[in-house]
Write a structure and sequence with these properties.
Order of helices and strands: EEEEEEEEEEEEEEEEEHEEEEHH
CATH class of the largest domain: Mainly Beta
Largest sheet: 6 strands, antiparallel
CATH architecture of the largest domain: Sandwich
Number of helices: 3
Structural class: mainly beta
Shape: globular
Strand content: 35-45%
Radius of gyration: 21 Å
Length: about 350
Amino acid sequence: MTLVVILLFVSFSLMSENLQKVVNLEGTWKFTVGDDPQWAKPEFNDYNWENVYAPRTWESNGFEEYNGFAWYRKTFRFNSSSLDVSLFLVLGIIDDVDEVYFNGHLIGSSGQFPPTVITTYDLKRKYHIPKELINLNGDNTIAVRVYDEYADGGIYQGPLGIFYDEDNELLSYNLSGYWDFETKTKQNNISRIYGVEVGKIFVPGYWELYGYNDIKGSAVYSKSFMLPSDFNSEDLMLVLGYVDDMEIVYFNDELIGKTDDLKNAGNRNIHESDLLSAYEIPSNVLIKGGSNEIVIKVFDTGGYGGIYEGPVGLITKRNFQSLKKRQAPKSNSIWDEIYNSIFD
């Protein structure tokens, strides 16, 4: 078995994404303090709510020294009547805890609300929008329930918008979507999120974004899929995007790679979660005209975890070289400038 490893350095935890914006959501939102589940409904009349600017702390919008629950709402329309791509709602960073509703349905949450608060004040919110919830010919409403425990609160850092991942166009077979998901600890209320059942999770995305806040150390992803009999299976790799922190990967019960292989390929100084994970698929392992199964054991050493950023799927080696170039670190961030000033 030949292992192909492509590794990228990205300074600190800032990954190079190729998200293309479909809708800009920065600007004026409706806002009120308090908490009422009726505010998630798209038909609710928020005319008398305050106008605030997002992204910006609610203290900067005139709600000084307020801690507790508050809601944001925004109604918008798509400019296109046809979008044949998977869309993500990106809400930047929210302090401390949030639930996000799209047209009245909960599509994701981060952290844990009182009485036992788990803050995710530093986690970038990026939630998948199920296609069946999208209204391409009329109004769409986003409602965000937020809890702030102390200090500044709210949707305080962008970007804010609806995006799709341009890198998915390079895939021969896209494997993003809902995967089976097993953890050692029992999880509560996961089934409240639209399209997600207990034992399922959307990939890619930090597992904290879908309500899994109490995972201790490890979890197992698995997915079965059918390939057509005429599928071109030559020269393929399995790309898993970025994994926090370490993984062991099986394809049809055969081990095809693990993080240690990536680290040992001359990249000992790169943090595991900053590696672009990609493994060659042996030609005798892939099944055309039948079912294939991928099993990924992920080990998290602290902080956030999971297969957190795409693309995820089957890709030719040639297209992977294009992906590698796209994923190269950008030079316009302050962290890149600091890194270059030290090591150049």
